[in-house]
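Chapter summary example.
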Amino acid sequence: MIELIPAIDIIEGKCVRLSQGKYESKKVYNENPLDVAKAFEAHGIRRLHVVDLDGAASHHIVNYRTLEELATQTSLAIDFGGGVKSDDDLRIAFECGARLVTGGSIAVKNPDRFCHWLQKYGPERIILGADVKEGRIAVNGWKEESACELFPFLDDYILKGVTQAICTDVGRDGMLQGPSLELYKEILRQHPSLYLVASGGVGSLQDVEALEEAGIPAVIIGKAFYEGRITLEDMEKLMNH
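The structure predicted for these 241 residues follows.
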């Protein structure tokens, strides 16, 4: 059974979506993320992916009050990312109720710090964010491409103890044209024990079913939900089938 993880992306405390990570493509879907989170919870969702887009752009955590509201007023397990760059950012995220924190840019730019977090908090609380653009890791809200290639990057961190990774295909994100199925299959072929969360491109229930069939452990559902292509009832059915 694939785990469904809906996403709430936050700019200025509001629930938004971007296309391919471009801030100028921002569309506000809800002024109040808590309403959205409560609706997910009411339909049996247990985990939520929260991204602080202001944080990703400004290189430090920004929307921690929204995180705190979501964590204290729902029972959802929140994995939080976006702008978590320092020990202080990480502490704030956990203090505000994040159950897990995703580190993407930090894992590229400051591997020592990321490894320190892995050792201090354990791989069950620290997720590797592997955002990929044409085979290379993208950083800083996807504005930059690094020299790191995806597969060596994953190999290296799995050796260092990473057990969970969110892999987003930047080119597909928010485009609703289907996920990078072959990419995810190849990652799992090389690392069968990795808890791989597929992200980017999911546009329909069929996309989720194809990922499930391929044995992908979890999927993030973002724009497909906000644009009405996958409903709360669909998610509930999927979880109960």
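To summarize the output: The radius of gyration is 16 Å.
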